TrEMBL record:
Taxonomic superkingdom: Bacteria
Protein name in UniProt: Glycosyltransferase
EC number annotated for this UniProt entry: 2.4.-.-
InterPro entries cross-referenced by the UniProt entry: Glyco_trans_1
Record has Glycosyltransferase as a keyword: yes
UniProt GO molecular function: glycosyltransferase activity
UniProt source species: Mariniflexile jejuense
Lineage, highest ranks first: Bacteria, Pseudomonadati, Bacteroidota, Flavobacteriia, Flavobacteriales
EC top class, as a word: transferase
Domain annotation Glycosyl transferase family: ranges: 222-373
Keyword tags: Glycosyltransferase, Transferase
Coiled-coil segments: none
PANTHER family noted in UniProt: GLYCOSYLTRANSFERASE (PTHR12526)
Length: 400
């Protein structure tokens, strides 16, 4: 029996989450493999999948107009500036990689999973677990409810409905599948969609391997990264920093509010396109996929902030917790307020003025920083390690 993971990439939030679970399985001696579009790491049973070479069948005129129609749909979506959107047809044949006794873990598979070939060719009794990292599983091309709720285009709404129904139709072909939400927020959202029977839904929090946390003090981490001992560092971490969904407008507003505080520095960890902000003396940006280096950056921060409008979980929070760093999040339609304990492991803000005032309070109280950081670390160890995530999954598997 193998555990077979599918994820579009091993980078980005969902890809990292998939790779972490896969690696934890290997550490426990389980037979786990991971397939993705871009990267092979032989020693870790991580394999790149090549596109299948298929001969297009059918009337050439039909194929031509079908391609034209798909191109028009993509342009319509692109013009709305959605965070991300993807179709259900790809050139990858993932069903060919599966054995009859495999346990399949389907993670974020945008532009990787071809619904038709996969669901029509796998055994209906295959055990398959869908890990929900966004809401594409209950949408059409869209991946976030944030985009879905702001959409006012009737044509897009019609397309979304058609594709969503087709997805649910494909999933209904399976008998032994489960949908795994990574938070109570995600679970409740999936349940309220009425797309799946309740017994198909369950919840398992994501986890972070203990090995990804570096034992280094805040002061030492600051020194290694080139900051002064008395600098108060505010860290924002995301795969893409300056995008609407991640609340970049909130981040910029906060950044401007602290312009006259030279000892308060803003640090971002992730890709950023706004080159103007990089010229500011109290702003630093890091880009790294190295877990040790990431841990050092989280350790150097006095506080981590997530300005996102929507998150199905929030791995940034547990990365901060693992390094004894408190976290600020915004209240709203997201899992973030569920993970942060208000005034204990961090702060849940209603608006940016709340964030501003809390940071000043935290900056002037080292005991509060330490108390929140210590409780954050305990919360991580007792609730959000990859070991706990794996044990919860194996328990679910045994009961399925």
């Amino acid at each position: 029996m193998r555990f077979v993971h599918f994820t579009t990439d091993i980078k980005g939030g969902a890809g990292i989450a998939a790779f972490r679970l896969h690696q934890t399985m290997l550490d426990y001696g389980l037979n786990s493999v991971l397939y993705n579009k871009y990267t092979s790491i032989e020693g870790l049973k991580c394999y790149k999948v090549n596109e299948a070479i298929t001969k297009k069948r059918g009337n050439k005129l039909f194929v031509f107009f079908n391609n034209k129609l798909n191109g028009i749909i993509v342009r319509i979506y692109n013009n709305r500036n959605f965070f991300y959107h993807s179709g259900i047809k790809t050139n990858y044949r993932l069903d060919c990689l599966i054995n009859s006794d495999d346990i399949v873990l389907m993670h974020w598979v945008s532009d990787f999973l071809d619904y038709k070939s996969f669901f029509e060719n796998v055994d209906e009794n295959l055990k398959i677990f869908f890990f929900v990292h966004d809401f594409n599983i209950i949408s059409g091309r869209l991946h976030t409810l944030y985009d879905k709720m702001k959409n006012s285009n009737k044509l897009i709404s019609f397309i979304e409905s058609l594709i969503s129904k087709k997805k649910i139709f494909y999933l209904s072909k399976l008998k032994n599948y489960k949908i795994i939400a990574n938070s109570n927020f995600t679970f409740k959202t999936l349940k309220s969609s009425n797309c799946f029977e309740n017994e198909k839904l369950c919840k398992i929090y994501l986890g972070l391997p203990i090995t990804e946390s570096v034992l280094i003090s805040t002061m030492d981490a600051k020194k290694v990264l080139g900051f002064n001992e008395n600098d108060f560092l505010i860290l924002m971490s995301a795969n893409d920093i300056d995008v609407e969904l991640k609340g970049y407008d909130r981040f910029l507003k906060l950044f401007k509010m602290f312009q006259n505080y030279p000892d308060i520095k803003f640090v971002t960890l992730g890709k950023i396109k706004n080159l103007e902000i990089l010229k500011n003396t109290n702003f630093s940006n890091f880009i790294t996929w190295d877990f040790i280096e990431k841990s050092r950056i989280f350790s150097a921060a006095n506080v981590v902030i997530s300005t996102s409008y929507e998150e199905t979980f929030g791995q940034t929070v547990i990365e901060a917790y693992a390094n004894s760093t408190p976290v600020i999040v915004y209240n709203g339609y997201s899992a973030l307020p569920e993970i942060v304990q208000h005034n204990k492991t961090g702060f849940i803000a209603t608006n940016t003025d709340d964030v501003f005032n809390f940071i000043l309070k935290l900056k002037g109280n080292l005991d509060l920083q330490k108390r929140m950081g210590d409780l954050a670390k305990d919360t991580y160890l007792n609730k959000f390690t990859s070991d706990i995530q794996l044990q919860e999954f194996l328990k679910l598997l045994n009961n399925s």
